[in-house]
Amino acid sequence: MNHRERPLAFGADGALLGVLTRPLSAESAGDAAVIFFNAGLVHRVGPGRLYVELARDLAGLGWTSLRFDHAGIGDSPARSDPLPAEKAAVLEALEAMDALARECGCTRFVLVGMCAGAPTAFRAAAVDRRVQALVLMNAPLGERANVDEQALAEMTARKIAHSYWTDKLFRPKSWLRLLSGKTSPLRILSTLLRARQSSSARAAAPLDDNDGAVLRDLAALSTRGTRVLLLFGERTGVRHYFGMKFESRLAGLPAAHELTLDIVAGGDHSFTTLALQDAVRARVLSWLGAAPHRDPAAAPASTGAAPAGGYTVPRRRPRSS
Question: Is residue 89 a contact partner of residue 70, using CB atoms and an 8 Å limit?
Fold first, then answer.
């Protein structure tokens, strides 16, 4: 065992509950800490216990980390005030940083979020300069309610077309459905054609107000030196939406070298299989580096894929919370 863990209650009346993971030796811990945010309604262990494994991996490299439940999720009771969920999540993120500052003397933070946890990390970083790095996994950076129907239709077409080229084309069952008339060849052809047309048309299309705000926030974070890892599963809708709206524009941002876009081949929304989760762990650990005493913003960055082979993922440990 290369870590020690204990519960941590913080926030108003100690209502927010989490697990603090630290290196065995206090002397090996630096002043930087990693905070994990709930992936949707999944409690603090993360999808498939991914957060547990990452927290313990990081402890072996000298990092302190906290994985906690937002109010109303897991072991944290719901809030009694009328604060909207989005604002409450950001407030609780700031309270988590304050708690780690008190408990461990941490002054610099890396925020990690998957799915709905990614926008929380993104918004918290925008308002707190203590955040020096972000890991955003399958991040829905735009507000779903503000996404126009045409964009959603094009995203869906891209996702389906991608599945044809990378998966269904090589599956005998798919060909059997086609030959038996259960799948329409005209529908397949029209989907592929629409995806190709949308790919070329969207690249130069103006961004709507919501997309523009996301791009401005990315630019502001990178300009101030906050490193950002955008990690997507290849098969997810959010990856195709990001590619359609933002990918071609990243290189034009100031300090674009602070932004890293990495696509996990075959990855689904929750990185369900052990192989996918191990790939995610390797990418995150390699990107962060193994030196928590060093400013995380100063580690090498790249606009290409993060190195997947720079870290060997240890065997999975016995199950626990």
Answer: yes
For domain 3-144+208-298, the CATH superfamily is Alpha/Beta hydrolase fold, catalytic domain (3.40.50.1820)
β-strands 3-10, 32-37 pairing? unpaired
d(CA 260, CA 269): 19
Q: If pLDDT is split at 50, 70 and 90, which confidence band does 209 have?
A: confident
First-residue to last-residue Cα distance in the chain: 15
H or E element in which residue 248 lies:
none
Residues of the chain with CATH 3.40.50.1820: 3-144+208-298
Residues contacting residue 289 through CB under 8 Å, at least 6 positions apart: 296, 299, 300
Phi/psi of residue 252, nearest 5 degrees: -85, -5
pLDDT of 201 strictly over 50: no
CA distances from 234 to 130, 193, 238, 311 (A): 31, 20, 9, 21
CA distance 10 to 13: 7
pLDDT tens-digit profile of 80-96? 999 999 999 999 999 99
User: Do 132 and 226 touch, CB atoms closer than 8 A?
Assistant: yes
